[in-house]
Amino acid sequence: ERERSQTAATGAPTRASDRLARSKMAPLWAIGLSLIPACLAVRGIGGEKPLDMEHEPPTRHTAPVFSGDQHVFMAHHTTPELSFATYVITLRERRRHVETFLRDLGLSNVAHIQPAVLKSRLDLHSLVAHGHVKKQAGLSMGEIACSLSHREVLKHFLQTNKTHVLVFEDDARVGSGIEKELQTERGANFTMVQFFEELAQTSEKLGWHGLNLGRCWDHCDEDHAVMKVSEQIDVVKSKRSLCTYGYLFTREGAKIHLKSTGRLRDAEDRVRMSFPNFVYMSTRPRLLEQAVHKTNSINGEKFHPECK
Q1: How far apart are CA 77 and CA 107, in angstroms?
Q2: 3-state secondary structure at position 75
Q3: What is the DSSP letter of 224?
Q4: Which are the contacts of 124, defined by CB distance < 8 A and separation ≥ 6?
Q5: Going by C-beta distance under 8 Å and a sequence separation of 6 or more, which residues neighbour residue 144?
Q6: In whole angstroms, what is the distance from residue 273 CA to residue 261 CA?
Q7: For 112-127, what is each residue's pLDDT tens digit?
């Protein structure tokens, strides 16, 4: 009030009050600038060079914060330290399912809900012209948006200090009876998060770069078991581990993925079969399956069996 009175009387604030005003304004500038990368991450797709941006790691807050058109939820890290970062690629209309899914798993406090790239905001001619999509790839806009979403998550992961990343799509759910079987074997307090941690630690021994937790349409009769991780669950090498409901990647696996998908040439799950020097394994049976939503999957199928 004293400053406003002085300004009204003299027509300008004193130097002292001017310095005070500037000091109060500085944090507002800082806050405004800090929001720019998040907005660009959602709105920039299809621009001059949107997919080569260096993204800052998603901001974490102590309470739910929704930002941008996709209402992205970022959570504060309060649970025991895990070796893996967790992301869920999410469409706005599936956010409630995702929040319930993460709460049931016990990952609400560590997971990043990452906005999915929207196919409606993509321009195929621009993507081809800027080298993001191979001209003759024959991909649908949904397949392109899916692949770009997974690339964005892996970019974020590599800016963390975690050794692994656990990625879910927004229609994932834990397979029927999986957790109960593990609790029967390991004890009533055993959780899926503990099991994901155990699986992540097998990468060094088994040499995998990626572990598919929810494969589909695989040639299961050609599986080669490499490790039994519970009484009922194995890690296997398989011929055609499709679907990307959920998976674990190592840091090296993420780097190989990004290097191999700088120019999209096939759908996200199929292209992984052709990555050079990339070891991709699966759990048998799959731990994750597709939840049913009003909106269908990318290829229109409502159910994807584990085995062909």
Answers
A1: 10
A2: coil
A3: E
A4: 133, 141, 144
A5: 119, 122, 124, 127, 133, 264
A6: 12
A7: 999 999 999 999 999 9
